[in-house]
Write a structure and sequence with these properties.
Elements: H1 3-34, H2 41-59, H3 62-83, H4 93-115, E1 120-121, E2 129-132, E3 135-138, H5 139-161, H6 163-173, H7 175-180, H8 185-207, E4 212-213, H9 217-232, H10 237-257, H11 261-276
Antiparallel strand pairs: 1-4, 2-3
């Protein structure tokens, strides 16, 4: 394989992994704390992309579009959490998965009603190329990788250095203990849910210039987002980051070797990992 092609593939894989991480971290946070499978995170991902498209088209500012996409995604999640999820936290895990999938499908219908079914292109904020190990790579993809790395660092600082973050981390480990300390668990759930959705919306906003924005874009990445969370271990932030990189590189390098591998290889890898470690790379025992 040509060296320059390989370097380009690796950069592509890291940028793809960055988007997978931003989408999947919401699924991981929601399961880790609230014990729900929030497939509607892919709806906020889609809304983030569409709001970015709309604001960029109207104002010409991509970064204003990204900011608006994150805000709208968070506000939509706040509404969904208050109206729907607060009623089902005590229900079975499968109930939350089915409900959230229903929210995702309903949201796709809303997207089609507002924006129609015609795919929408989003202009890349800049088209500069950078030299990396003798290979020209798109500067925007490198920026996406940097933003995802900063998000991971920000999440780590938030969970380990702030009072709310420590409460969330403690809740992931032992919710009964957190309740016993008198912490308002309902507010903790809301904060976590909105944070997760905002990160998913950020993923959609950043990915918009690299793809064509269309109503079913959330469904198209659903399998990969789910795969990332399962491989990394449900509820593990570190696991989500590591598995995002693994899946991103497998998809990218696999497509260079043989195109169908981009789809087949990640699923085969997931099966092998689960056979060896059923709870994922960094997962612990699943709570009942």
């Amino acid at each position: 394989m040509d060296g320059q092609l390989l370097i380009s593939g690796i950069i592509f894989g890291f940028s793809l992994a960055s988007i997978y991480f931003l989408i999947s971290i919401g699924l991981s946070l929601c399961f880790g704390l609230m014990r729900i499978i929030s497939l509607d995170q892919l709806l906020y991902y889609s809304f983030g992309a569409y709001i970015t498209y709309t604001v960029t088209t109207v104002t010409g500012s991509f970064w204003l579009g990204v900011a608006c996409g994150v805000i709208v995604g968070g506000l939509l999640a706040f509404f969904v959490e208050r109206v729907i999820f607060r009623r089902i936290y005590e229900r079975e895990l499968t109930f939350s998965m089915i409900t959230s999938f229903g929210v995702l499908l309903g949201g796709i219908g809303l997207i089609k009603f507002i924006w129609g079914v015609v795919p929408r292109p989003v202009k890349t904020p800049f088209t500069d190329q950078m030299m990396l190990l003798g290979t020209e790579v798109p500067a925007y993809r490198l920026l996406v990788i940097l933003i995802a790395a900063l998000v991971y660092l920000g999440i780590w600082v938030f969970l380990n250095k702030t009072i709310i973050g420590k409460a969330i981390r403690a809740g992931i480990e032992d919710m009964d203990h957190v309740e016993g300390l008198g912490i308002n668990v309902t507010s903790l759930f809301t904060i976590t849910f909105v944070l997760a959705a905002s990160l998913s919306a950020l993923g959609g906003a950043l990915y918009a210039p690299l793809i064509i924005v269309e109503p079913n874009m959330g469904l198209e990445v659903l399998a990969f987002a789910f795969m990332v969370v399962i491989i990394g271990g449900l509820g593990s932030i570190k696991g989500t980051m590591v598995s995002s990189i693994i899946v991103g590189q497998v998809v990218s390098i696999g497509s260079l070797i043989y195109a169908p591998l981009a789809i087949m290889a990640p699923f085969a890898m997931m099966l092998v990992i689960l056979l060896i470690k059923p709870t994922g790379l960094f997962g612990g025992k699943l709570s009942k």
